[in-house]
Amino acid sequence: MASGNMKEIKRRIKSVQSTMQITKAMELVASSKMRRAKERALAVRPYFNKLYDTIARIAGDTRGADSVYTRQREVKNSLFIVIAGDRGLAGGYNSNIFKCAAAAMEGKNAQVVTVGKKAQEHFARRTWTVAADYPGIAETMKISDTHPIVQGMLDQYCSGQVDEVFLCYTEFVSPLQQEPRCLQLLPAHFNRTEAEKPAGAYVLTEYDPSPETVFDAIIPEYMYGVLYGAVVESYCAEQCARRMAMEAASDNASEMIDNLNLSYNQARQAAITQEITEIVAGSGEVGA
Q1: pLDDT of residue 96
Q2: What are the two backbone dihedrals, phi and then psi, of residue 115, each rounded to the nearest 5 degrees?
Q3: Fewer CB near the terminus (10 Å): N or C of the chain?
Q4: What percentage of the chain carries pLDDT values higher than 70?
Q5: What residue spans of 62-135 are helical by DSSP H?
Q6: Residue 97: is its pLDDT beyond 80?
Q7: Longest alpha-carbon distance in the chain
Q8: Is 187 exposed, middle or buried (CB count within 10 Å of its CB: 0-12, 13-18, 19+)?
Q9: Mean pLDDT, residues 191-206
């Protein structure tokens, strides 16, 4: 009986060891990808901040002007761009962004543009209309890859098919912290406070042919930058979440192996004790 139990424990130890090798390998791969993704995410932020500062300044100079991108209208239809991962085993990364998107979409007549295979699979099983899918583009994405997504979104907005556009992504805060966000893209709002204005002399910029025309022309460029930055941030957050999940899985596997080794030693000791007892009992019978 003890021998059979020992064999079962031994099989479980080997099985957990095999799983631990996989989780360790995935942790190392995620760590390598995370370093590259972090460098790319940090490199994108200055570009986005400068772009936002520029368009906020133009928006301030055109305050009161009528633009299709800032005009408020009655909201009948909404469009959500949801960015998730292309793979699982990333802890709560995918489920958290889906919860964030579902909370923002509640009560709205919404359609979805998915970025990432997991988002595609998730919304294929839901009641919301999927306008377009873009799986497998995050890892090697270039800013030019955002053009068809943004152009399709702007066409729908300008033609009145949708009245507001939101972007749901995961912000990379640190390797240990990733936060889901839902950002309204359209109608656009640019609130530039006095603290954000440059100190000292203010240079008056002249726009040709007009500030309104320049503003409308730069909005698509701004959207390209926002979407590209969101995809880069989300991909970095995904790798961080996967590394953390695989590290936790490896630690749990190591703890499980220690417990199984303890159980194996206890079973082995019980088997040895039983054999000694049987030998002693048998020698007693012979002596009698």
Answers
A1: 95
A2: -120, 115
A3: C
A4: 88
A5: 93-105, 117-124
A6: yes
A7: 118
A8: middle
A9: 53
